[in-house]
Structure formats: C-alpha cells, structure tokens
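queue> pop job 88
queue> type: inverse folding (structure -> sequence)
queue> payload:
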C-alpha cells in the first residue's frame, strides 16, 4: 500500500481520495451515508470526514444532510468527481498492471479478484471455512 500511495499516478487526488471515489462509484446513485463509507476504507472516521470535506470543496463530492437522520450525512460523487475518478482509474490500473501483471497468470489474477471480493464482503468468516484447503 505504501508503494502504491508513493507511486500513485495522479497529482490531482491522493490514493485515499481515489479510494473514497472508487467506493462511491460502486454505490447506487453514487451515494452513501458517511458512516457506511467509513466501513469501506482503511481510514479513521475523522480522517474520512476531513478527506470528504476537501473533496466537497473541490467540487468532486456533494454532502447532503440525511433526510432520515438529520445528524448524519450522505456523500455523493459528482459528475466532475466521476470523470476525474475514471481518468485516474485508467492510469492507476496501468501502474498496478506494471507491478503485478506479469507476475501472475490470468487464472491467478482471476483468483486474486475472487479472494479480494471475499475479503471485502461483510460476512462471517465461517462462510468460507469449508473452502480453505487443509494443510
């Protein structure tokens, strides 16, 4: 992660800002409650709040009061934010491909994607115990 952050291919946004935009791009209507966003990123809640405020001030996100709970906030990726995210994603994928693309076969890359998805899903670990090979 340090290497990816240090060599992140964008001067416009950081890897952490990209991560927030990536997660928003995957949500219905590109919106999510701030407290739910916190569960998707590897940052503390105060850090996510400051990062979101920076992206709002630059026009990449909108921050709305949650109509269901006035104490909460809903974060939305703007059209400008989505366009920037897509532009940076192409360069970012290129840098990842340079790092691991030739080290792994196509089958291994597919397996890596499946494993990463399993780790990302919020479910009990027992669900995957049966699929782990015994030593």
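queue> result:
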């Amino acid at each position: 992660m340090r290497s990816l952050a240090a060599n992140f291919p964008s001067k416009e946004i950081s890897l952490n800002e990209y991560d927030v935009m990536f997660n928003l791009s995957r949500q219905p209507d590109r919106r999510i409650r701030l407290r739910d966003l916190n569960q998707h990123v590897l940052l503390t809640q105060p850090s996510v709040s400051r990062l979101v405020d920076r992206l709002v001030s630059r026009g990449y996100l909108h921050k709305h009061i949650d109509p269901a709970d006035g104490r909460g906030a809903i974060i939305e990726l703007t059209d400008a934010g989505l366009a920037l995210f897509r532009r940076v994603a192409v360069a970012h994928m290129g840098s990842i491909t340079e790092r691991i693309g030739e080290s792994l076969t196509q089958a291994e890359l597919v397996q890596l994607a499946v494993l990463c998805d399993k780790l990302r899903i919020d479910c009990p670990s027992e669900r995957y115990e049966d699929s782990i090979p015994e030593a």
